[in-house]
Amino acid sequence: PKEKGWRTPHLFLFQGFWCQPKEIRAIISTQNHFKAQDSDVVLATIPKSGTTWLKALTFAIVNRNKFSVQPDNHHHPLLTHNPHELVPFLEYKLYADCNRLPDLSLLPSPRLVATHVPFGALPSSTKTSKCKIVYICRNPFDTFVSIWHYLNKVRPESLGPLPIEEAFDMYCRGVIGYGPYWDHMLGYWRESLETPNKVLFLKYEDMKVAERNQLKKLGEFLGFPFTEEEEKEGRIQDISSLCSFQNMKDLEVNKKGKGAISGFENKDLFRKAEIGDWMNYFTPSMFERLSNVMEEKLEGSGLKLTAC
Ligand code: A3P
Questions:
Q1: What residue's CA is closest to ligand 1, atom 24?
Q2: pLDDT tens-place string over residues 200-211
């Protein structure tokens, strides 16, 4: 099956999810060649659900003994690099070039990598090894608005702007990169219930309102728990400030830099970062349609999402 794409002329249904031909080749290469190690951390997200933030937080947490996260460290790598440069995507970076396999020995330990593919499409070694998988889920209303803004920015001019009504219809039918979104979130949700030591399921909204607890949970899950002393000294707060939306957005590398993701401008990765921005775009009938779809799809799963 083939559908009109958001950013490219077409999206194709591959292994049960939608993606572009170039991505299909890279995903197959990842599935064939990536050998996860027990100490690896795989960050999994659907686009625009908080990937950049999760990358920054995870990098800061696991490397905090190597790179101090205290505000007097003006040389922390996150101050001069976009998080996507520090935590590469499997399918967009490491395995993007199907003719050349990456030299993973160049990745610092523990190896941090990211992916947008659904759980079922992860390379099998991520499941057979003891590597950890962290998923971040964002409410589908704000995720839609974020995707629509972003893809309209990076869409080739020749395709013209994508009207919100058209994008919304595709979204509600599940047609977005790596979607349907409900299948994506449910795949990781179910795994997190079955194997909680293997898959951690975080929510963007929880991270925004109770970041401290979520960061403690993330540190513990990754095997880098915060000591009492670190907590007392404010290390969690330091990480939260270092990776905060405002701090990251204002960095020179993110204001002026390019190419952290496939040739786009880094500034486009930082827009508003609010819970409930969808209310500025949704009509009552859009709200009703997406609410109904989500209710039906998540029914019985135990997964509850907060949209405002
Ligand atoms: P908005 O478009 O709603 O502002 P991704 O990183 O998966 O591409 O997701 C992008 C979304 O996360 C954007 O949402 C962006 O503004 C927000 N974001 C980027 N950096 C963030 C940070 N440090 N903290 C919270 N949200 C962030």
A1: 245
A2: 999 999 999 999
